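Reminder to self: tokens first, then the designed residues, so the page reads top to bottom the way the pipeline ran.
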């Protein structure tokens, strides 16, 4: 966390840059520093200045070093006045990213409505009590293509009705997400501590039949044995599926066998195991029920270290994917940073041995691709 002296030096530096700026327009303005509501007057002035200059890319992240936010001390993004001069400059805005900033639904919706050239919108960690319902709307004249909403504390509902929207990403508590008019939406990311397939997938199946790529972030895994079979609607056109899974070796990926049945056209599957510090110890393997994976050609197992639940699921995929052309095994976890590389190296040998065991058992030959294991 930055000290008060460091914060003040940063603010003074930005203020001097503002005073010295002589240009007529600003292409890119980014603030990435640990600042709070104490500096609201300065930040408000920066926002007003760059918007008047017709900024094209505006990114504000005020919790880079702290790593978490404190709702009572977070900067509140100011309401925008509805003037003709402001509307003319907002027409130039193409990218808006607000992270660790309290922003109301009304302000976000004003940006979406007024900024017809806005292509990318990111809202992350807003604890504003005025961000409860969010309407993302836009007709043919609006350019909005990508929307990302992560970890907004009080958000209860998102309604998507944007003709040109291509990608939507949401992570947080279970909320109501409706898809009213999204004919071009082909990529969706859904995540949260307790991801409820039953809450989200029926809407996708009913209104986003053209969906091609789906990513599900599942930090806490529920077993079908205890929660019952999953009732999952069919997504006929889905070609690419990514499962980001946190699971202990004592658990099983049995729940995902039902998930596979819902995607009859699935061509590529990536499973990213995120629990890299679970101990690798053997247990009795469980047989996962069979499921027809007629179109699955490529499988990628990331963070694979040969735990029993990983071997179970790899076996399930190999046995059921009759058209399988390639299975990639990579021991490096998703978004791994190298500070713990020494710890990971100890497990790479196990990963290679288990991968080779799969290759031998199922005669995979050239279908088996070892990534980040060639140096062992």
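Designed residues (376 positions):
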């Amino acid at each position: 966390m930055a000290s008060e002296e460091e914060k003040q030096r940063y603010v003074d530096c930005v203020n001097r840059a503002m005073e010295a700026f002589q240009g007529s327009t600003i292409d890119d303005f980014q603030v990435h520093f640990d600042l709070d509501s104490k500096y609201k007057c300065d930040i408000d002035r920066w926002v007003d200045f760059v918007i008047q200059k017709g900024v094209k890319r505006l990114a504000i992240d005020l919790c880079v070093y702290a790593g978490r936010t404190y709702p009572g001390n977070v900067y509140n993004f100011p309401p925008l006045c509805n003037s003709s001069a402001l509307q003319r400059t907002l027409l130039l805005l193409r990218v808006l990213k607000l992270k660790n900033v309290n922003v109301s639904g009304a302000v976000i919706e004003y940006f979406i409505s007024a900024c017809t050239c806005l292509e990318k919108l990111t809202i992350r960690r807003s604890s504003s009590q005025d961000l409860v319902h969010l309407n993302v709307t836009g007709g043919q004249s609006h350019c909005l293509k990508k929307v990302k909403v992560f970890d907004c504390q009080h958000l209860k509902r998102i309604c998507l009705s944007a003709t040109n929207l291509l990608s939507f990403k949401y992570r947080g508590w279970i909320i109501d997400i409706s898809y009213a008019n999204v004919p071009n939406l082909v990529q969706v990311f859904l995540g949260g501590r307790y991801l409820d397939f039953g809450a989200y997938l029926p809407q996708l199946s009913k209104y986003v039949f053209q969906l091609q790529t789906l990513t599900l972030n599942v930090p806490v895994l529920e077993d079908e044995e205890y929660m019952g079979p999953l009732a999952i609607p069919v997504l006929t056109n889905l070609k690419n599926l990514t499962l980001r899974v946190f699971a202990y070796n004592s658990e099983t990926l049995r729940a995902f066998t039902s998930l596979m049945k819902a995607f009859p056209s699935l061509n590529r599957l990536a499973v990213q195991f995120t629990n890299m510090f679970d101990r690798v110890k053997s247990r009795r393997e469980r047989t996962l029920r069979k499921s027809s994976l007629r179109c699955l050609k490529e499988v990628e197992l990331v963070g694979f270290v040969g735990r029993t639940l990983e071997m179970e699921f790899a076996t399930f995929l190999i046995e059921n994917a009759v058209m399988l052309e390639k299975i990639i095994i990579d021991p490096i976890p998703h978004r791994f940073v190298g500070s713990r590389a020494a710890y990971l190296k100890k497990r790479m040998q196990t990963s290679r041995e288990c991968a080779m065991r799969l290759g031998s058992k199922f005669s995979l030959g050239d279908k088996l691709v070892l990534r980040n294991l060639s140096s062992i």
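The chain has two domains: 1-185, 191-375.
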